[in-house]
Each structure stands twice: as structure tokens, then as C-alpha cells.
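Task: complex structure prediction.
Instruction: return C-alpha cells for all chains below.
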Amino acid sequence: MASYATSAGIGVGLVTLLALYVGMTYCLTGFGFRFDVGWFLEAVSPYQWACTGIAMAIALSVCGAAWGIFTTGTSILGGGVKVPRIKTKNLISIILCEAVAIYGIIIAIVLGNLLEDFDFYNASWEVTAANYYGGYSMFGAGLTVGFSNLFCGIAVGIVGSGAALADAQNPTLFVKILIAEIFASAVGLFGVIVAIILVTKVKMGKSASI
Amino acid sequence: MSNLGSREQTVWAPFFGSMGAAIGISLSALGAAYGTAKSSTGICTAAVLRPDLMMKSVIPVVMAGILAIYGAVVSILIIQNLSYELTAFQGFVQFGAGIAVGFAGLAAGFAIGIAGDSGVRGSAQQPRLYVGMILIMIFSEVLGLYGLIVGLLLATKATA
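Output:
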């Protein structure tokens, strides 16, 4: 009779227990130094960080846009069975969700243009640090844009769904609920702004130094 | 004097700064999105009943949007102090600032969404509930403000 929540809880508990066991083993046998976050951050190539950021930017943005589109779309199509007039006006909600995906691809292209190679083995500390900084920043920017657009897309979808059904009841309501939808899409815009500000300082390549 | 290590410039310190900025805006955006979406379902339902109260019912959506602004402000402040010559101390402080504003915005957004949903539905049926809903919205918003205050305090410590 265990529900999904119970099995999820048991799973989380088992994973935590395993992590604690492994961690305590390392600590108590004198090998605690092996858990080295700094080593991991330096060992992973800056291009891995940067490209993961680019991938997250486009992948999560498109997921958010898709989620929003199907949420709104089902409501429009369902409500449109009885009230077919709603279908043209409510395409605005679908377009607002699509804008979220466009934010993602713009940031992905901007980040992709910043990628540049450098000579890892002969570079000075300045150049190495600047390239690592570029990698970390692009990872952060990609996550920023990806997650904000994901959440924004879902929110715009839910609001658009409500707007479609309210429009079906009373045509004057659509424009008022559009105000709420615009507030929802502003959330994704903030993510894009923060990501752009983050990558303006990035300079990768052989001659990198800010 | 012992060198505690956190005042030395490390290559990996900007990772924590950039993660602080990312978490600050992303989690605040989640809170804002949740608040907007949850209260909008209530607004759409209430508007069918009382279309004239529609503009007054948009308050929860506006207050949820402000949470995203809090997150953006702290993230931008973190980014101003980011560079490739960053000490570990600066990186960690920026990470803390981002987590502070992010989780606070997330919590405030959840509160605004759930309370705002019930609030707009109730005040469409009973107009005297409106002032109560506003008071509850203000208390929920203040949670995000606390996160902003702590985030600002931390982020301004990360100056070079």
C-alpha cells in the first residue's frame, strides 16, 4: 500500500545513508582529503563548463516553452469546442510562451560566439584564470537563462490556460488577464538580463585578460 | 601568521560567485512564477464571477513579480564584483548571497501564490475580505525582503 511519496522518501533515505557511509569511511580512515571540490573544479575543462551552460540555456528554455504551449493549447482547444471564437485571440498566450524559447536560443548563440581556444600547457596564470572564469560564467549564465525560462514558460502556460477559459465565459476578461500574463513573462526577461550582464565580462582565448 | 587559505586568489573561486548569481535569480524566478501562476488561476475564476474586481485582484501577481526583481538585484550586485582574480572568500560570500535571496524568494513566492489564490477567490465573493488579503500579501512579501537584505549585506562584502 506504499504510495509514490513513500517510495520516493525511502529512495532519498537510502541514497543519503549511502553518501553518509562513504563520507564517514573516507573521513575516519584519513583519506578525507580525497573529497576535493577545488580539484574537481579545476580538473573539468572550462569548455565543458561553457558548453554545458550553452546546452542548458537552450534545452531548459525550450522545455519551458513547450510546457507552456501544451498547457495553454489544451485549454484553448478544449474550450474552443463550444466557443470557437477564442482560438485567434488566445494565440497571444502561445506566442508569449514561444518568446521564452527565443530568449534561450539568443543566449545560446551569444555564448557560443564567446568560445575560443587557448594553449593550456603554455599559458600564463592570467590567461588560464581568465579562461576558467569564462567557463564558469558561461555555465552560470546558461543555468540562469535555462531555469528562469523553464519556470517562466510553465507560469505563462498556466496563466494562459486560465485566460482562455475565462475568455470563453466572458470576452471582456481576456485583456485584463493578459496583464497577469505579461508579469509572468517578465520573469524570463530578468533571467536573460542577468545572463547578459554576466557574460559581458567574459573573454576567452589566447589573449584573454580583462 | 597562519594562512587560512580563503584569502588567496584561486582559479575556482569565480565558480561559486557565478553559481550564487545563477541560484539567486533562478530560485527567485521560480518563486515569482509559482506566485503568478497559482494566483492567476484564482483570478481567472474570480473574474468570471466579478469582472469589475479584476484590476484589484492583480495585486498578488504584482507582488510575486517583485520577488524576481529582488533576485535580479542581488545577482547583478554579485556580478559587479566578479572577476578572474577572485579570492576564495569572495567566491563563497557571493554563493551565500545568492542562496539567501534565492530560497527566500522561493518561499515568499509559494506563500503569495497559495494565499493569493484563496484571497482573490474569497474577496470576489465577500468584498470585506480584500483588506485581509492585502495584509497577508504584505507579510508574505516581507519574507522575500528579508532574503534581499541578507543578500545585499553579503554581496557588498565581496568587494575586492
